[in-house]
Specification:
It contains 12 helices and 4 strands. The protein is α+β, with helices and mostly antiparallel strands and about 450 residues long. The longest helix is centred in the middle third of the chain and has 68 residues.
């Protein structure tokens, strides 16, 4: 009867175990959900993308659907599960001891049934829970850092794509102007006012411009596919992306270092990692102290039943978890060195980003204030000379090429400045006001 009771207790204990359920991945089914994602976004009312996707909306979509961010959030869920199940009492142990007296085989044997509980007097479980909670904080910081980097990197790539789109539009305008120019030059050639070499140079320029337009078209298509990937949409999704290479507002130069210390997402992640090592060291120190083990003992000896109470306590004489403590101390010192090294890296990275931004701003100012105005003046002088009948097709060709190059360069530098601004902001970290654009604030 007592054995049946013990078996019943064991069955109840095993009934609390978690079962296993297989969950195979069906990529064909996922492909259908992947293709329907824009429509699902529309139905959910998350964003209205039918009138085009702006840069700010694309950043929101990237936060929702970027594959790497979704993977990191799944890892965060795993960390939460670990924290929820850390620091629990050790499961009780149910043991059986069966013996037979050898001196008198006629007498029945002995049976001991023990149920042992571990009472955490050392404070080890609280320290383990604190370490697990710090691990969740570190995992959360990693997700937030990844989300911030994803936003800023998408913003920079959006500026590059916008630059390519604007350059392609300008290139097509230049081609249209050249085609009109060639029609007039062909008329002059028919009159004998210019020779075949002069006309041929303009025709070669037109071919070069068409090749450049083809290259820009290919670049636009590649960048757009990349942006769609970052937003979590298929390459074929029916979406209109809206070019935007506007500048992001930055804090004053004198404030950036202080903001870097408190807002940089990678430093925050490293601090959280250091906090985990601190909590793990505390847990290792607490683990050297013994926990109390106690429980009832049911004994059947020679037909006589008895209830006893047992009490056990480990004696930390030889080890005392010295190895675990030494490893935890080493891990903490390594985390400290990583945090200090990360501070140095982020300071240098911020300065490099600032230098890149400053150089781009100088180049853009030089092109807009000197190169373009001088080319415009030169074009006006050449037009006046041509009006007097002094045609110079080669000089006009050189000027036309320089004007096209300068106009394309302006677009390139404006987009480069916007991308460099995003990289500076990426180094500083999230601030209260990210952008003066209304859609961005929304």
């Amino acid at each position: 009867m007592n054995l049946r009771r013990s078996a019943a207790i064991l069955s109840i204990a095993l009934s609390g175990c978690v079962g296993y359920e297989e969950r195979p991945v069906d990529l064909l089914q996922y492909e259908q959900l992947f293709a329907e994602r824009p429509a699902a976004v529309q139905r959910a009312g998350t964003l209205v993308v039918e009138d085009g996707v702006s840069r700010g909306e694309a950043e929101v979509l990237a936060l929702l659907f970027d594959p790497e961010l979704r993977r990191r959030r799944a890892a965060l869920v795993a960390s939460l599960g670990i924290a929820e199940n850390t620091g629990k009492w050790v499961d009780p142990q149910l043991g059986f001891e069966v013996g037979q007296q050898t001196a008198d085989v006629a007498r029945p044997g002995t049976i001991d049934v023990r149920l042992v509980f571990t009472v955490p007097l050392s404070g080890r479980l609280e320290a383990e829970r604190a370490a697990a909670e710090a691990g969740v904080e570190a995992a959360l910081r990693e997700v937030l850092a990844a989300e911030w980097h994803a936003r800023m990197q998408l913003r920079a790539r959006w500026c590059e794509w916008s630059r390519a789109v604007e350059q392609l539009a300008l290139q097509q305008e230049l081609i249209a102007e050249l085609e009109q120019k060639l029609q007039r030059l062909a008329l002059l050639r028919s009159r004998g006012e210019i020779d075949a070499v002069e006309l041929g140079n303009w025709e070669l320029l037109l071919v070069q411009q068409r090749l450049q337009a083809s290259s820009l078209s290919r670049e636009c298509a590649g960048l757009e596919v990349e942006l769609r990937q970052r937003m979590g949409f298929t390459p074929e999704a029916v979406l209109q992306l809206l070019p935007d290479a506007s500048l992001t507002e930055l804090p004053a130069t004198t404030e950036r270092l202080a903001l870097l210390e408190v807002r940089n997402v990678d430093l925050a992640t490293q601090r959280a990692s250091y906090a985990v090592r601190e909590r793990e060291l505390l847990a290792a120190v607490r683990a050297q102290y013994p926990d109390l083990q106690l429980g009832p003992i049911f004994q059947m000896n020679s037909g006589i039943d008895a209830w006893l109470a047992g009490l056990w306590i480990p004696l930390p004489i030889f080890s005392g978890n010295d190895l675990g403590i030494a490893e935890a101390i080493g891990a903490r010192e390594e985390a400290r060195a990583e945090l200090e090294g990360r501070w140095e890296q982020e300071r240098h990275a911020l300065r490099r980003a600032e230098l890149d931004l400053e150089a781009t701003q100088r180049d853009r100012a030089l092109v807009e204030s000197e190169w373009l105005p001088r080319l415009a003046e030169q074009r006006e002088r050449l037009a006046k000379r041509s009006a007097r009948g002094a045609l110079d097709p080669l000089l006009e060709l050189d000027l036309q090429m320089a004007l096209g190059t300068a106009r394309l360069r302006v677009l390139e530098l404006r987009a480069a400045e916007a991308a460099a601004t995003a990289r500076v902001l990426e180094q500083i970290g999230p601030i209260e006001r990210l952008d003066s654009n209304t859609e961005e604030r929304n």
